Amino acid sequence: MAMNKRGPGGKSGGGGGRGHRPGAVDHSVLTAYELRGGKVSAPARKAAPMRRPVPSRPTEVWTEAQWLEALPPVLAQLPAGVGEQTLSEALSEVQQRQLAAYMVMLAHWNSTFNLTALRDASEMLSHHLSDCLRVLAPLLRHLHTADLLGRETPPRLLDVGSGGGLPGVVLAICCPQVQVTCVDTVGKKAAFIRQVAAELRLPNLKAEHARVEQLQGRYELITSRAFASLPDFVKLTRSLLSEGAVWMAMKGRAPDEELAELPADVAVFHVEPLQVPGLDAERCLVWMRPEGEAQGVA
After folding, report:
1. Which pLDDT score, from 0 to 100, does residue 23 have?
2. What percent of the chain has pLDDT over 70?
3. Residues 223, 250: contact at Cβ < 8 Å?
4. Strand partners, 241
5. What residues have CB less than 8 Å from 33, skipping those under 6 apart?
6. What CA–CA distance (Å, rounded) separates 8 from 6?
7. Number of H-type helices and E-type strands within the chain
8. Pairing state between β 266-274 and 205-209
C-alpha cells in the first residue's frame, strides 16, 4: 500500500487538496513580504549604502583691502568711454575705495537681508561688479553724444528694480556728475542703498521704496538689470521718460523674442554686445527710445 505523502502546510500530495489548481500558490506558506505584494521569487535586498554628503566649499568673503587688490586687473581691461583710457586710469583712488567698500557692505548685508543670490567674493566680482562696470563706457558715450553733461542740471538716471544697487550704486560712484535714483519694491533693499549713500558720502545717489509705476518725475535715461522683459520694462517706465530720453536695458544674450514683442512705437536703435572680464557669458545693452524722438547715437 502506497504511503500518503504530505505536501506543504499538511496538504495531501505536492499540490493537491480539494479545489486546488495545479501550479497555484499555496497562501499558507507565503511570507509577510509576499503577502504585502512582493514577488514570491524576489530575493532579499540589501540596503543601499549611505552616501556621505560632499562638503561644500566655504563661502569666500573679502575684506576691503582684498577688494582693492582684486580691482586693478579688472579695471585695466575695461574701457572708460573717453579716448583710449581704461577704468584703472579714469577712476580715482577715492572711487576705487568706494567700490571696494560698497562690495564689503553688500556682502555683509547680504548675509541677513538676501540682497543677491551670489555670496562668493570672486563670483560677485565677475558677475556683479565687473558686469556693471562694463556699461560705464557706453553710458558715458551716450551722455557726451546727447550733450547731457554740459547742462546746469545734472542728467537723471533711474535704475529700475535695483535690488542691492546693481548697477545704480556702481554708476553713482563712477559718475558723480549723474544723479542716480534706485527704485525697488522691497523696503530692506532701498534701506541698504540709503545706507550706502550715507556711509560712502554719495550725494548723487538716492533710493525709492515704491513700485516704478507709482514714481513721479522725469529721467534722461532709464536702465534695468534682470528686471523684466523688454515689453514690460518700457510699458512700466514710459511715463517717466523726459524729452529725448532713452532706455538702456542690460541683458544676457540678445533677447530676440522680447525685441519682436516690443510695441511698434518703440525704436530699438542699438543692440550692443559687451565683453565682461572674467565672465564667460553673453552680455549686451539694448538701447531704445520712443518712436519719433530725435536720433542720437548711443
Report:
1. 52
2. 80
3. yes
4. 219
5. 42
6. 7
7. 11, 7
8. unpaired
Query: Ramachandran region of residue 148, left (φ > 0), alpha (ψ -120 to 50) or beta?
Result: alpha
Q: Report the pLDDT averaged over residues 208-224.
A: 97
For residues 272 and 139, the answer to whether their CB atoms sit within 8 Å is no
Q: Nearest-CA neighbor of 260 among 231, 235, 289?
A: 231
Check the CA dihedral 162-167-173-176 and report its sign. Answer: negative
Global pTM value? 0.80
58 alpha-carbon distance from chain centroid: 21
Contact between 190 and 145 under an 8 Å Cβ cutoff? The reply is no
Give strand pairing partners of 82: none
Question: CB neighbours of 62 closer than 8 A, spacing ≥ 6?
Answer: 70, 103, 104, 107, 121
Question: Which strands make up the sheet holding 283-290, listed edge to edge?
Answer: 205-209, 179-184, 156-160, 219-225, 241-251, 283-290, 266-274
